[in-house]
Write a structure and sequence with these properties.
binds pyridoxal-5'-phosphate, alpha/beta, Aspartate Aminotransferase, domain 2, four-stranded mixed sheet, 2 domains, 17 strands, Aspartate Aminotransferase, domain 1, 38% helix, seven-stranded mixed sheet
Length: 390
């Protein structure tokens, strides 16, 4: 069975994914089942996507009701799910306007276009350089690859979109020095670098970046594609850092497992776009927006406190444990620096019924935000045992 699946995948699927030899057929909550009927505790949530787990009842009811009513309509007409969701996003964040797309990369593309237009109008057409951090990840399109500060993603795909520069995190002097030679249009950061190895920015550096953008009257863009929608233990991670971004991009967990990206514009940029400046055929799709409304409306303060408590539980389960050298992250977004290679730890966890991810040289954990405590504790036990193996 598995061999046939692997053969067909190799024959028909473009070779971009190195998959585990495992076929997942269904799931419920934080448990997923393979083709042989084995169950696994899902500590990856489809890479921070299934915010309330697989086939969550309330989410499923909201999505299927919308699916049977209106599955798509062009953006030439008004539709209720998209407007309701935009209003909820703005009310919960204080941001003013939303542009909906279908993925994280597209949410960032929109953020970049918004910042470029604002800078061109405010500071002149030669003010276009977007600064991001080394070790960042902002997506796979040619423009968001240019934004991504990791050279190995760039190789063989050049030339990328021009007008990007990268500086090292935690070195505010590098931003100041760059501003001496380059007109900077915006700075874009992840509060916790996800793909970069679950590396949180220090509060001091995040504040320094914000002061820099305010002093230069340029937008601060926070990429909350992975950290957003409750993952960090706050609705958005920038809230834990006390930041007031001008643009926030998000996707992954927003619609609980359906493709939806959102770019939130704050007061300064709320009117930057005019008719025709940007668009998306599927953006704001009613089914995806109905799913997102179900997720977002349940990310209450009480719920987010539980996310933080579960994150704290994991941090203390792993801190100082044999074979675990470091624990990083925020909320339910954690990276473990293990003595054994992360890939070996993940493979052994899988054999013991726990699905984990990697990020760079770390084991990365992104469980569903509502994972029951008993499953979380069981997964932590397995990970600790596997990490301690010689
Ligand atoms: C995953 C991710 C992206 C890209 O999202 P896609 O939906 O895969 O396009 C962008 N930024 C960050 C921080 C991410 O984690």
């Amino acid at each position: 069975m598995m061999n046939e699946m692997m053969r067909l995948d190799q024959e028909y699927i473009a070779g971009t994914y190195k998959r585990f030899p495992l076929e997942i057929v269904r799931g419920k909550g934080s448990l997923v089942e393979d083709a042989d009927g084995n169950n696994y505790i899902d500590m990856g949530s489809g890479i921070a996507v299934t915010s309330f787990g697989i086939a969550d009842d309330a989410w499923q009811a909201a999505v299927t009701a919308q699916l049977g009513t209106l599955q798509h309509m062009s953006n030439l007409y008004y539709t209720d799910p998209c407007i309701r969701l935009a209003r909820l996003l703005c009310e919960k964040t204080g941001m003013r306007k939303v542009f909906f797309s279908n993925s994280g990369a597209e949410a960032n593309e929109c953020a970049i276009k918004a910042a470029r237009k604002y800078a061109a109008q405010k500071h002149g057409a030669d003010c276009y350089t977007i600064v991001t951090l080394n070790n960042s990840f902002h997506g796979r399109t040619l423009t968001t690859l240019a934004a991504t500060g990791q050279a190995h993603y760039h190789e063989l795909f050049c030339p990328l979109t021009p007008g990007f520069a990268h500086v090292n995190a935690e070195q505010p002097g590098e931003l100041e020095a760059l501003a001496e030679t380059t007109k900077i249009a915006a700075v874009m950061i992840e509060c916790v670098q996800g793909e970069g190895g679950v590396v949180p920015l220090s509060a001091e550096y995040a504040q320094a970046v914000q002061r820099f953008t305010q002093a230069h009257d340029i937008p601060l863009i926070v990429d909350e594609v992975q950290t957003g929608n409750g993952r960090s233990g706050a609705l958005y991670a920038y809230m834990r850092y006390g930041l007031s971004p001008d643009i926030v991009s998000t996707a992954k967990g927003l619609a609980g497992g359906l493709p939806l990206g959102a770019t939130l514009l704050g007061e300064k940029l709320q009117n930057v776009f005019s008719y025709g400046d940007h668009g998306s055929t599927f953006g704001g799709n009613p089914v995806c927006c109905a799913g997102a409304y179900s997720i977002l409306s349940r990310l209450t303060d009480d719920f987010l406190a539980e996310v933080r408590a579960k994150g704290d539980f994991l941090q203390s389960a792993f801190r100082g444990a044999p074979g675990i050298e470091d624990v990083s992250g925020l909320g339910l977004m954690l990276g473990l620096k293990t003595a054994r290679p992360a890939a070996d730890v993940v493979a052994d966890c899988m054999a013991e019924g726990v699905l984990c991810l990697t990020a760079k040289d770390k084991v990365r954990l992104l469980p569903a935000l509502n994972i029951p405590q008993d499953l979380l504790a069981a997964a932590a036990d397995v990970i600790r045992r596997v990490a301690a193996k010689a």
